[in-house]
């Protein structure tokens, strides 16, 4: 599968530019199975992809097992169409004693369009846990 690379930046000064913030972590096409009976993509499917992308990044930061403790400031900005290539970008904004805050942006590249656009963003918080699911300090 072709991997689409958009220009990504973590520079706060470039917020005004139509470019994703963070690191490209997950890419997946929106499929017919991800829709409701009206053929619209489920919001829950999008959140699932965001959670997965954030977990990939959180595991790397925590060097091990993590779990989602909070999801907040979720914004569904524009719809996703079946066939759109969905890209999740992650940006670590805070590392606590055991918690990791990650901003996630979802961008799509419709097959017929040249310019990608943001469809969803939100903040995911993970906690590092041990084999017994107890909070584990990461620093
Ligand atoms: C219900 C589900 O199945 S959802 C699917 C996946 N998620 C889960 O299963 C997680 C279920 N939750 C848990 O198992 C527990 O809440 C745990 C193990 C994650 C955390 O245990 P707690 O004793 O509640 O957490 P604790 O008080 O030790 O806080 C851990 C860290 O999380 C932070 N934290 C706690 N609650 C929140 C919250 N609502 N939002 C953001 N951060 C939070 C704390 O500030 C702390 O951060 P720090 O160590 O960096 O200072």
UniProtKB/TrEMBL annotation:
CDD domains, alphabetized: BFIT_BACH
Give Gene Ontology CC terms.
Answer: cytosol
A single MF term (Gene Ontology): long-chain fatty acyl-CoA hydrolase activity
Q: Where is the HotDog ACOT-type domain?
A: 20-132
Source superkingdom: Bacteria
Provide this UniProt record's keywords sorted from A to Z.
Hydrolase
Q: What is its EC number?
A: 3.1.2.-
Q: Which GO terms describe its biological process?
A: acyl-CoA metabolic process; fatty acid catabolic process
- Pfam families from the UniProt entry: 4HBT
User: Would you identify the family this protein belongs to, as annotated?
Assistant: Belongs to the acyl coenzyme A hydrolase family.
Q: What is this protein called?
A: Putative acyl-CoA thioester hydrolase
Organism per entry: Parendozoicomonas haliclonae
Upper classification of the organism: Bacteria, Pseudomonadati, Pseudomonadota, Gammaproteobacteria, Oceanospirillales
